[in-house]
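Notes from the 1:1 (GR / supervisor)

We went over the backlog. Supervisor wanted to see one worked example end to end before approving the batch request, so GR pasted a single chain during the call. The sequence is below; no edits were made to it. Supervisor asked that the structure be written out right there so they could see what the output format looks like.
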Amino acid sequence: MANFGRPGMGRGNFGGFLANTPIIRGLLYANVGLFLFEMFFGKLRLSGIPIDSYIVRYLYLWPLGSGNFYPWQLVSYMFLHGGFTHILFNMFALWMFGTQFEILWGPKKFLTYYFLCGLGGGVAHLLISPMLGGAGPLVGASGAIFGLLVAYGILFPEQLVYFFFFLPMKAKYAVGVFVALELYYTWNGAQDNIGHLAHLGGAVVGLIYLLITEGGLKLFSGIRMPKRQDDGNYWNSKANGGSIFRRRPMDDDNAIDAEYHDIGGTATKTRTSGGTRIITQEDIDRILDKIAASGYQNLSEEEREILIEASRKMDQKG
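Structure output shown during the call:
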């Protein structure tokens, strides 16, 4: 998995992100836990056979005609990795890019998106790899991770990331470069023991999902706009129609009741009714504008709390 880096990742963010992202936390625990289990206990034997052999035989994603394929492998392969570098980059990317989407979308939608991209990567590997010269067993969360990268490049196109940790680049260009590299390696049949088709499958499924759920081709209007629109939101303009970041007229129907927490700060003011804080669409729009301009890590504690409360409320309605 390719390595990105995002500017402004200050100390203390890791714990703060995990506290508000139960799906990311669970995925990290599951992936790292299985990796450590295999590392420390894989050589132990059951009925004379190493545990490693059972994991490879039943949990890796094997080709359809191999005699070793089982349907559950389309899920289990996402939680296994081939080495320390493999899991390090995948889990780092999951934490870095996935946390924003779990908070913005809510746990249910994020988990749906993640697994659909992972399944897409697995299916692409199963169906297309044999046509390009054969395929071995597949492991890794890279298909799902590539889906997250595509979503980040589309929905946060102007956000700077550090390409390979040192070259600053806008997200839309960085993701485009990685997709182009995957296409190149696939076309040329690279023998590097990397599932490039799984990466591309995850990216394609992620793109299709976003097109279906977030406004069709209008979704790309945010990528083409280098500057913010006059209404103060460069991807929420009327031209962007069905994006998840679209603006709606602010009225009481668009207000979200959230449990009130006295957390201080003045960056975002909300209406209150009795002991309840009212989060309006205007509040959410303002916070999303700030994320677009400088990233989630630069939100104030109050702004993060408002976004999390809104996300939880929307997730409950879903």
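Supervisor's comment: The CA atoms of residues 108 and 318 lie 8 Å apart.
Batch request approved.
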